[in-house]
TrEMBL record:
The keyword Transmembrane applies. This is Formate/nitrite transporter family protein. Residues 1-23 have a biased composition (Basic and acidic residues). The lineage of its organism: Bacteria, Pseudomonadati, Bacteroidota, Flavobacteriia, Flavobacteriales. Signal peptide: none annotated. It is a multi-pass membrane protein.
């Protein structure tokens, strides 16, 4: 038992040593796996060290800003309806979907799905506890959801008055998002969480703002084009339907948001954080 604990302690020391030695060079064109991992762990730990009120406000801001993606897709849908086939409109919406993500991520607001794997890494590296991770996730999710509720109420009110979309548009988008079997929504959310975790990893690997914009656009456009379920954008889409249409019920909303959040968290934490971290650990072991 004692020997096993000593072996684990030694292994952790080796991992920390390798991470410490992973220093990014301005002369290299690409960062190594260790350099990216180190940056992700450091950034994750910085979030843990922030004041809870600061985290909540940043998360609230992200929930509000992501609403601009919803504003654009509603406006496009309304503009093109009866002019273009509905399935074509849905695909075209994917080119506007990334706008809110670009605002949120480049603006350094805290978005749950983009931060999922980032916040998991310090736990895997034994620098933070699982309890602290769940507490932080809860705070970020709460802020993102509240921000989403606020922007949904505002857009449901302002959209018809500006005549850029109507309540029928809101209902159609909400029904489109939720009209799937529960297991399909969960599996779709896992893939979306996986993509968002990769987005965080790829952004850490990039060195310029332009490359980050391209990466954000590429990943989130793929997510939208394939119809994968993102919990925070989906929250705005479905909640807007809930407050403006009888087609969305409170139970339907709660089931959707629960499945989407759990699926996104699973996809980001397992398929990105865990696998990326374990790949580095096995490399250290040699």
């Amino acid at each position: 038992m004692l020997e096993n604990e000593e072996a684990k302690s030694k292994e952790q020391q080796n991992i920390d040593k390798e991470l410490k030695n992973s220093e990014a060079s301005e002369l290299t064109t690409a960062k190594s796996h260790g350099e990216i991992l180190k940056q992700q762990i450091v950034e994750g730990q910085e979030t843990y060290d922030k004041n809870p009120v600061s985290i909540l406000l940043s998360s609230l801001t992200a929930g509000l800003e992501i609403g601009f993606s919803y504003l654009l897709i509603c406006t496009l849908y309304y503009f093109l309806q009866d002019k273009v086939e509905e399935d074509t409109i849905i695909k075209l919406m994917s080119f506007l979907y990334p706008v809110g993500f670009i605002m949120v991520i480049l603006g350094q607001s805290i978005l749950f799905t983009e931060q999922t794997s980032l916040l998991t890494l310090p736990v895997l590296n034994k620098k933070r506890s699982l309890k602290s991770l769940l507490k932080l996730w809860g705070l970020v999710i709460f802020g993102n959801l509240i921000g989403g509720y606020i922007i949904a109420f505002f857009l449901v009110w302002i959209g018809p008055r500006l005549q850029i979309f109507d309540l029928s548009t809101i209902e159609k988008i909400a029904v489109h998002v939720t009209d799937y079997d529960k297991m399909i929504i969960f599996a779709s959310a896992v893939l979306a969480g996986w993509l968002m975790g990769l987005l965080s990893w790829l952004i850490a690997a990039s060195k310029s703002t332009l490359s980050r914009i391209v990466i954000i656009f590429m990943i989130t456009a793929v997510l939208a084009f394939t119809g994968l379920h993102h919990s925070i954008v989906g929250n705005v889409e479905v909640f807007a339907g809930l407050i403006s249409s009888p087609a969305i019920t409170i139970s339907g909303y709660l089931i959707f948001i629960g499945l989407a959040l759990f699926g996104n968290a699973f996809g980001g934490a397992v398929f990105v954080a865990l696998l990326k971290y374990r790949a580095f650990v096995y490399d250290v072991k040699g």
